[in-house]
Specification:
Helix content is 37%, strand content 12%. It is an alpha+beta fold and 206 residues long.
Length: 206
């Protein structure tokens, strides 16, 4: 596996876009005991949210070894959550909104509009020409467009590689938009059930 190198400007942009909005949500949850209309005031729910808040910058832009350390701090307390807790199923996916990140990028209806920070710009910033896992298929983004009668360009479709989660977002939702956990990859290689990476080493990413 090729190591993932993320430019400093990309890390800065990601933190700028996500840190404050996530920090505000965490503050609300810790202060009120509710997030996304769901209770999160139980002892271990508050502990996990506090740990996430304390480590938020590293969660967003920290290297894989830091993500692994954070995961190892938080996960032992997960088993103490009551069965009725919605922290992992609903609250954390709402806070670390991968769907929003993955959809942000080129505006298909307005190609002249400045691109928002999201998956499209992230992949562009990496300048990767092949899949870090298999080193074969190209992973650069392609924009398909046509010229309209009025001379303006209409973007029809943006094709970009899959972003694979080294630490599965279904299992660790607080790592869903961690940059070093987002690996541009071959869609064919990682189609279907998300892969488990027990055989890969953290140092393979960086």
């Amino acid at each position: 596996m090729n190591k993932l190198v993320i430019p400093q400007d990309t890390l800065t942009e990601h933190k700028k876009e996500w840190f404050e909005k996530i920090n505000r949500k965490l503050d609300i949850g810790l202060r009120t005991g509710y997030l996304n209309g769901l209770k999160c005031s139980r002892k271990y729910e508050k502990y996990i949210l506090s740990e996430i808040k304390k480590n938020l910058e590293n969660i967003l832009i920290g290297e894989p070894c830091l993500l692994d350390d954070i995961r190892n701090k938080i996960e032992p307390f997960r088993k103490n959550l009551p069965k009725r807790s919605k922290l992992y199923d609903n609250i954390l996916p709402h806070i670390f909104n991968y769907s929003s990140f993955s959809k942000d990028g080129s505006d298909l209806n307005n190609p002249d509009r400045k691109l928002k920070w999201g998956a499209y710009k992230y992949i562009q910033s990496l300048g990767i020409r092949s899949c870090p896992y298999c080193n074969r298929q190209f992973t650069f983004s392609i924009t398909v467009s046509r010229l309209k009668k009025d001379g303006k360009t209409l973007t029809l479709k943006t094709i970009k590689p899959e972003l694979d989660h080294f630490f599965p977002k279904s299992k660790y939702p607080y790592l869903a938009i961690s940059l070093y956990n987002l690996i541009p990859s071959d869609e064919v290689l990682f189609s279907g059930t998300p892969a488990e990476y027990d055989s890969l080493k953290i140092n393979d990413i960086k």
